[in-house]
Design brief:
Elements: H1 7-10, E1 31-37, H2 42-55, H3 64-80, E2 89-97, E3 100-107, H4 128-135, E4 138-143, E5 150-156
Antiparallel strand pairs: 1-2, 2-3, 3-5, 4-5
Helix pairs in contact: 2-3, 3-4
Length: about 160
């Protein structure tokens, strides 16, 4: 794990509970987190939250395009693929770490995401994590400490990718 991803650097240990907070208001300066329903429209809501968060960050405009794509894929995976009981929510969390955007998506499924490398040209899905991998400096998944499920995170720099 790089120094950029060490829990002591990002301020919140991976897997800690994400609290529901109003947009643009967080317990920590420079961090935004929000609970969302597991619904197909949640990716759009999450993108709007991310744009609002990045509006308040110097140079944040350079992170919007790649950040929105990565966030959309991670939220869609949590909504579509997480096999969880009805009524469970997802959570998103954004933070700027050493000029990089850290995106986290928490869900109640313990199943780790797997990149599908052999998606056929006519298949309509299965490429999302390849997009995340291409646009992220690093990404990964870990269990949520003290809670149910996992968090999937990605670290995006302004120009996207490694």
């Amino acid at each position: 794990m790089s120094a950029l991803l060490a829990p002591s650097v990002v301020g919140v240990p991976p897997g800690d509970a994400v609290t529901s907070v109003p947009a643009r208001s967080t317990a920590q300066p420079g961090v935004q987190s929000r609970r969302l329903p597991r619904h197909r429209k949640s990716a759009g809501v999450a993108r709007k939250l991310l744009r609002g968060f990045l509006d308040g960050v110097p140079g944040g405009g350079q992170l919007v395009a790649a950040g929105e794509l990565v966030l959309t894929e991670l939220v869609d995976n949590a909504v579509v693929h997480a096999r969880v009981p009805k009524g469970r929510e997802i959570a998103v969390r954004f933070e700027i770490v050493c000029g990089h955007l850290r995106i986290e998506v928490h869900d109640a499924s313990g199943e780790k995401p797997v990149i599908r490398r052999s998606t056929g040209p006519d298949e309509l899905s299965g490429r999302g994590l390849c997009v995340v991998e291409a646009l992220s400096v690093e990404w990964g998944c870990c269990p949520r400490r003290g809670g149910v499920g996992k968090l999937v995170w990605a670290l995006v720099r302004p120009e996207g990718g490694a």
